[in-house]
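[Q] Does anyone have a clean structure-token version of this?
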Amino acid sequence: MAAKSHKPLNTFLFENLSRQKGITHFISTRDGGVSSHPFDTLNLSFNVSDDPKHVASNRKLLSSALGFKIESLTTAKQVHGNNVAIVTRDMRGKGSNDHASALDGIDAMVTNVPNILLMIQVADCVPLLFYDQKKRVIAATHAGWRGTILEIARNTVNSMVKRFKSDPSYIYVGIGPSIGPCCYEVGREVIREAPKDLIKTRNGKSYFDLWEANKSQLIKAGISASNIEVSRICTHCKSDTFFSSRAGGGITGRFGAGIILA
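[A] Here you go.
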């Protein structure tokens, strides 16, 4: 995963998705915006206690830097579930300028409509971006520990197959920056529900590997391991670059993971 500069802000790109024609994608960082501490500076979420005017300005800065229209931005009211929305033309722009109009109760969005920018907002949870190069279908997915255990990544692939006849062998996926197995200490609730082989114990503490859990789901759904890129960037370790809820004591902004069909 390589950094690409868009002054006055930076975004990260997946190498596998960057090789695909007909799409644009990004992972934003926490830098280059106007929000004040603890949302400094490029907070993209209306659903934290940041000034809504600052969030609107940040989204405009992002859209200007990346060359998309703010009216194309489509977001969801993420609830840590496994519901997948098929985004149609009339849903374009839902949540672009406020939280109230975002798609309700959704943690993954799939579309084959051009000029709809699907954006997930995260701060430790796993963002996943999908592209079916044959059917020209994209998806953006938010996977926290609950969503991961509920197999939101696998549900996203299944929705692409069911609705658009996607063949998983043509789907490319990027698993973005999120809290890594180095830092994601978990308690009994997660230990009880998570796959046992993905819980590791160190110094009497338990850690959950969200990256491997989601990658495993994608492979079980039929996606080749060679088509999956894992950024392996821990947001807790790199909280100076990415928002991290744990590092911020639960009060922080959100960075975005987005994808759009040209």
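[Q] Thanks! Anything notable?
[A] Residues 153 and 214 are 6 Å apart (CA to CA).
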